[in-house]
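Materials and Methods. Structural model of Glutamate dehydrogenase. The 424-residue sequence of Glutamate dehydrogenase from Rubrivivax gelatinosus was retrieved and submitted for structure prediction as follows.
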Amino acid sequence: MPQPLSFVHPTPHSPWGTYLAQVDRVVPYLGHLARWVETLKRPKRALIVDIPIEMDDGRIEHFEGYRVQHNMSRGPGKGGVRYHPDVTLEEVMALAAWMSVKNAAVNLPYGGAKGGVRVDPKQLTHKELERMTRRYTSEIGLIIGPQQDIPAPDVNTNPQIMAWMMDTYSMNVGATATGVVTGKPIHLGGSLGRVKATGRGVFVTGREAARRLGMDLNGARVAVQGFGNVGSSAAELFGQAGSKLVAVQDHSGTIFNGDGLDIAALTTHVRQTGGVAGFGAAEVMATEDFWDVDCDILVPAALEGQITVARALRLKARIVLEGANGPTLPDADDTLAERGVLVVPDVICNAGGVTVSYFEWVQDFSSFFWTEDEINVRLDKIMIGALKRIWDTADHHGITLRTATFAVACERILMAREERGLYP
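The predicted structure was written out as tokens:
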């Protein structure tokens, strides 16, 4: 029997353990390709780097960084970089693997990769953050590149950090390489529509799911966990469709208004204060009470592992739209399915961001840029087409959307692996 990776010991509720359980569930639907399934359970490459920087006061601090390339059979690695004090190698491995599945699910010509640095960026000054980013980029420069592995923003990273990464890589190779990262500032080769793309994908897949269930979005009650780019953008689009945002939870607290929160005012408040806490036109709720909110649609758009069995048993929502990566534990997934709650999984639901990242990458190579309307039309078409293929697979086999997404994506990945063969 194949041995587990020696450098990580997953538990059932860990990110990597969750991913492995998801792969095991899809094996019966892979046919002859199942012989290659171990390919999906082992990252192609995992790089751990030391990041020493000089702090503003002259101290030398060391941070630990990672870049994992999970599978690159379908193309160069693609995936974000997160800065967070709880980042681990195992988490980054799982996020890279989910990127492999996500890219294949929407049929982008990419493999899966992910990066991270264990740091609280809020504790760094602007200059310290820049020095750390540039040193991290130099350390992982061995394995990234426009045709090798293309980083992007993720938790606590943004267009400015992508600009520093692009500049550092460009200086090291001696030529401006705009295609080495996506999510850049517009004037440095970024794409219109990128900031709101992930949230837009959540809304588009949610709209299609609501149609399937016969749910009218006009008047539908929406609860959102996490109010960054993804959660706020999705909330804005649901609001435009006539839905009511009744509850929001983030790192600062939980707020509720049964008549609907003012999304524009809340977005401004969060931008000014850094969190939803203190927003005037809302009630304060206890953290755990968020999972009891009476809503039609729940959007977990924070971090992984949020929906446990206990919470799944309490949810009132009919639809769960996974804006975050890995927010639902496998046994909680089963509980939601048994209760008839429709889960649109992360690997299709939040794929809008990487889809527009692909558009950015293509535009950088051609030096020809599209309008935001063109971006949104192309994004909607890809998301709707991908979801239809997945839904047809789910209906054919009588399986959940998550297992169907993995079936479609893993078949594409393993077909590429089989047709390429093994070298040497």
